[in-house]
Design brief:
- The chain is an alpha+beta fold.
- The protein contains 19 helices and 12 strands.
- Strand 8, helix 17 and strand 9 form a beta-alpha-beta unit.
- Helix 4 crosses helix 5 and helix 10 packs across helix 12.
- The protein is globular, with a radius of gyration of 23 Å.
Length: 573
């Protein structure tokens, strides 16, 4: 599998705002041709604002990688992307958005899919999503044929080992960690050069991630279509759960093993050191180099292990996975039996079930590969940040994030000249961090000054007997005390058997899923990263439960039905 032919030299991206004043230094141009942008999915990997450094480096490469992916799958011609605007991604008010117009158009052009299919898989049940409106140039039968040929290849890949490109990427990104030099011995200029050396990797890895992400919709869409047609949509989630080989779930299994070792023992210390080497790139807000990781802040991992330590042996994620794997086999056999009289449908369904075992874990492998690259970028810049703190130039190690790519050479030559600018940008970043950006917008947003605060109170809180409807995320039922956790950095309020109520989750949250009896998420969809992992760990989960963190009282007793997507408040605290 090779990347398609999009060449940035032929289609330069102009950084800046072509649609009015920018709200923050990170903000990018946006596409007028593809005007709908959403926080769906990207909000899991960029829950916080994007820093100036990330916006001017990794995000640029991700935009190019996204274009590579679309061209490679046959969904778009390279010249369909406006050369002077962002098309795949965009930043408004500091927050990263994914272009929903492209996703929908892919659904319209792809045989057997539709814009509604893509909405269901990426948006979930979020309100306020505008309907698709056909525009000139949308209908492309020639591209439909190309996509169809790609789909035919997709159905021939039945295991993760078939996707050799992703295994090669895994080995290459692991080598980045193995070959990391002694960063303390490098000059600031050499550290910056190492950061820049990592940046082009992001284009390749992100292109593979986007390609794999959209190919994962193919088997899921086929399974969903058959299950819905025969009146058994309840079989969809069990069939795509308990697959195995999900890289993003591996840290949770490793943490569980650590939680069963005596804290402070030589056995634990050696195992935890090996854990940090293998999974140290993980952490909250993983795509942002400024954010902490388990290697830079081991206390984050230790806190999650601590929550598992006080959990009963019955919470072992391996046991939950085995149960979901068994349910998967039963549900698959049941659905196949229902269409046995139709050989064509039966054959297509069997192929879809088989290749889902490759593409769903493949998607998480591509994300993990990206995270390793970002982490090596992070570690080089943190060494610069450490030195700048010692010199009195930075207030925090992470202040490197508030300097753009173009500014960095001048900054390294004259560090003190940007101290005031860095402080101003950090203050604005922290202000934006307290706000709730719109889930979707068309054209551009109304601006951060119109956004509500994340901690804003609501007048329509739930009371005993009330229900909140979302979407099934992972099948199963659970009852427990609702614990509203807004930050994965602070898991200590969560006790074993509690119901975790979270705003939006990236895989750094998933270790908290293990001690929880169930999970409820404000935002999410069937192909959300965290939902794939929750199905792997076998935790009952409800997604797209709009406003759950604001409406469900902390401390209330609730019931979570991951099979129907309904949350019921049983008792108030």
């Amino acid at each position: 599998m090779t990347a398609g032919g999009y060449h940035p030299a032929d289609h330069p991206i102009v950084w800046g705002d072509t649609m009015g004043d920018k709200y923050y230094v990170t903000d990018t141009s946006l596409s007028a041709r593809f005007p709908i942008y959403t926080r769906a999915n990207v909000g899991e990997v960029f829950p916080d604002p994007v820093t100036p450094l990330t916006s001017s480096t990794a995000l640029y490469e991700a935009e190019l990688g996204g274009r590579d992916a679309w061209v490679r799958m046959g969904a778009f011609d390279a010249d369909e992307f406006p050369p002077d605007d962002f098309g795949q991604l965009g930043v408004q008010g500091g927050y990263c958005y994914l272009n929903a117009s492209l996703i929908r158009l892919f659904g319209e052009r792809a045989p057997g899919l539709s814009w509604q299919t893509m909405d269901e898989q990426f948006f979930g049940a979020q309100p306020g999503i505008p309907p698709y409106e056909q525009m000139d140039g949308d209908v492309r039968p020639d591209l439909g044929e190309k996509i169809g040929a790609t789909f035919a290849w997709v159905f021939g890949q039945h295991s993760l080992s078939d996707l050799t490109e992703l295994t090669d990427d895994r080995n290459d990104t692991k080598a980045l960690r193995d070959d990391r030099p002694d960063l303390s011995s490098l000059s600031n200029e050499q550290l910056w050069a190492r950061f820049l050396e990592m940046v082009p990797w992001h284009r390749k890895m992100f292109g593979h991630h986007l390609f794999t992400t959209y190919m994962a919709t193919v088997p899921v869409g086929a399974i969903s279509a058959v299950a819905t047609a025969v009146g058994r949509p309840d079989l969809i989630m069990p069939i795509i759960a308990g697959i195995g080989e999900v890289d993003s779930a591996e840290p949770s299994h490793a943490m569980w093993a650590l939680s069963r070792m005596p804290l402070g023992s030589p056995q634990f210390d050696a195992a935890f050191s090996a854990f940090l080497y293998e999974y140290g790139s993980r952490g909250p807000n993983e795509w942002e180099a400024r954010s902490a990781s388990w290697e830079t802040r081991p206390a984050l991992a230790l806190a999650a292990i601590d929550r598992m330590r006080v959990s009963p042996d019955s919470a072992d994620p391996a046991g939950h996975h085995a149960q979901r794997a068994a349910e998967r086999e039963v549900a698959s056999a049941e659905l196949l039996a229902m269409v046995a009289a139709d050989p064509a449908t039966h054959g297509q369904l069997a192929a879809a079930i088989a290749c889902s075992k490759a593409w769903l874990p493949g998607r998480e492998r591509t994300k993990t590969n990206n995270i390793r690259v970002v982490h090596e970028m992070r570690m080089a810049m943190r060494e610069i940040g450490r030195r700048m703190v010692e010199a009195g130039v930075f207030d925090e190690i992470e202040d490197f994030g508030f300097i753009t790519k173009d500014e960095m050479p001048s900054f390294l030559a004259h560090p003190g000249a940007m101290s005031a600018t860095v402080r101003e940008r950090r203050a604005e970043y922290m202000r934006l961090e307290q706000l709730e950006p719109p889930f979707v917008f068309v054209g551009r947003t109304d601006g951060p000054d119109t956004w509500p605060r994340r901690d804003a109170a609501v007048a329509n809180g739930l009371t005993a007997g009330d229900v909140l409807a979302g979407m099934p995320g992972c099948p199963g039922q659970a009852e427990g005390i609702a614990r509203v956790v807004l930050d994965s950095n602070d898991p200590f309020a969560l006790e074993p058997g509690d119901i975790l109520i979270a705003p939006i989750t990236d895989p750094s949250w998933t270790p908290l899923f293990v001690p929880a009896a169930g999970v409820v998420v404000d935002v999410g969809a069937p192909l959300s990263h965290a939902i794939i992992v929750s199905r792997e760990l076998g935790i009952p989960c409800v997604i797209s439960a709009t406003g759950a963190t604001r409406r469900i009282p902390n401390g209330a007793r609730v019931r979570v039905d991951g099979s129907t997507g309904v949350v019921t408040v049983l008792e108030l605290p």
